[in-house]
Design goal:
Blueprint: H1 2-23, H2 25-44, H3 49-77, H4 80-111, H5 119-123, H6 125-139, H7 153-176, H8 180-205, H9 214-217, H10 222-250, H11 255-275, H12 287-306, H13 314-339, H14 347-381, H15 389-414
Helix pairs in contact: 1-2, 1-3, 1-7, 1-14, 2-3, 2-6, 3-14, 4-11, 4-13, 7-8, 7-14, 10-11, 10-13, 10-14, 10-15, 11-13, 12-13, 12-15, 14-15
């Protein structure tokens, strides 16, 4: 049920970005929103687990059609400093939406409205989606893409297959015990990526329209910023997953209480992402590097304080807030740096690349760091997935040490970014 959405979403993001360019960004955004809303209703009314899995796949498809268009619209509608501000607002909204979703979702599950259990978690999307469709039709600008550019179907199929071959084992590997087919798919995914690069080079050499223009990846700041953001998202996703397991399975907290515990992190992330540009401009270039180092220290502190398996203290909450603020001061400037200088005609390519990189980072983070957390629980306690606060706290400390290392790795990559923010 959980994996179906993530797999469909990750595999089809590039497709969604390219379709937006051909058929209009606003039109595809609204179409994706409509599909996501309808699929949410179907999920809430699903008569069986099999039907729920199918409707979750449709939800992932709707998101893949919708999400890339947001960045494409920002790229096409704003320029210069206005674009950087818009990207900052977008990242802040994502953070606030993330914490709101966790808290509201936890409240709905805990409340068990009308005895419906988990169903309201999906049904709540329906009125929100309908309201957004109504507002979107009226307010979103009508921005057309480059209709003359042909869709590279061969490249599209190859890239989707490569991403799918990587995502499926990463999502399902731990639950399945990492069988041989998982490793075979990972190897196949790497081979398909290499084949995709060769095919796209051939398309470009023949004067055709490759799925992703090579010059997009050469845009100032995009490649190193995207690589740094991949590490950041890997760490943040792994942190969120491991912390949720620690709180709910290790400490026995409810879903609502767990969501409220991480709320300071996400709110700090959103606030910093929105207000970082108010700092003196001379600090903008070094802000991500400084923030990543501070974030690494914050994760280390949270992990050290969690080792004894005790209840979450106010010191830990303060460290969680610091982690969020540092994350926002790193993520938003890097996001703006990656996309701030992309030419408008390459908006769809850049948007597709960035959302795919971020999604892959989340998948890798949950898979790799989630496996690390659960394996450490087993090592410390001898049973799995989580057995006792002390084992859970010790496992969380090890996992957050790995997260801190990822933040420092991202800081090293940030030094490769040349040019101040737009």
């Amino acid at each position: 049920v959980i994996a179906g959405y993530g797999i469909a979403y990750a595999v089809l993001l590039i497709t969604g970005a390219r379709l937006g360019e051909r058929h209009g960004f606003t039109r595809l955004f609204l179409a994706g929103l409509a599909l996501f809303t309808a699929a949410s209703l179907a999920c809430g009314l699903a008569p069986s687990v099999g039907a729920l899995v199918g409707f979750r796949l449709l939800q992932g498809l709707g998101s893949a059609l919708m999400v890339p268009q947001v960045m494409s619209l920002i790229q096409r509608t704003f320029t210069g400093a206005s674009r950087v501000r818009a990207l900052g607002v977008y990242s802040a909204v994502l953070a606030v939406g993330g914490v709101t979703g966790q808290v509201v979702g936890g409240a709905l599950v805990s409340a068990d409205l009308f005895g419906w259990g988990w169903r309201p978690v999906f049904l709540v999307n329906v009125p929100i989606g309908l309201a957004l469709l109504l507002v979107g039709h009226r307010l979103l600008p009508s921005v057309a893409g480059e209709r003359t550019r042909r869709l590279d179907l061969k490249g599209l199929v190859l890239l989707a297959a490569a991403i799918g071959a990587l995502v499926v084992p990463l999502v399902l590997g731990h639950d399945e015990g990492w069988p041989v087919w998982c490793w075979a798919l990972l190897a196949a995914g790497a081979a398909l990526f290499v084949l995709f690069v060769f095919v796209e080079r051939g398309v470009a050499a023949r004067g055709g329209h490759p799925l992703i223009h090579a010059r997009v990846l050469r845009s100032p700041g995009l490649a190193p910023s995207a690589a740094a953001l991949f590490l950041v998202m890997t760490g943040v996703a792994g942190f969120s997953f491991a912390l949720a397991l620690h709180l709910q399975a290790g400490l026995g907290a409810s879903a609502l209480r767990s969501g409220l515990t991480v709320a300071p992190t996400m709110l700090g992330f959103g606030a910093a992402g929105l207000w970082w540009r108010r700092l003196p401009e001379r600090l903008h270039r070094t802000l991500p590097l400084f923030a990543l180092v501070v974030g690494a220290l914050g994760f280390a502190v949270v992990g050290l304080l969690a080792r004894d398996g005790g209840a979450v203290s106010w010191t830990q909450r303060a460290a969680l807030l610091l982690v969020g603020i540092a994350g926002g001061c790193a993520y938003s400037p890097l996001f703006a740096r990656a996309l701030g200088r992309v030419e408008p005609e390459h908006a769809a390519d850049a948007s597709g690349v960035m959302v795919t990189v971020l999604q892959l980072g989340q998948v890798v983070g949950v898979a790799a760091l989630g496996t690390l957390f659960l394996s450490r629980v087993t090592a410390f306690h001898g049973s799995s997935p989580v057995a006792g606060p002390a084992a859970s706290g010790s496992a969380l400390a090890v996992t957050l040490g790995a997260v801190a290392a990822l933040m420092l790795g991202a800081a090293v990559l940030v030094r490769a970014v040349r040019g101040a923010l737009a």
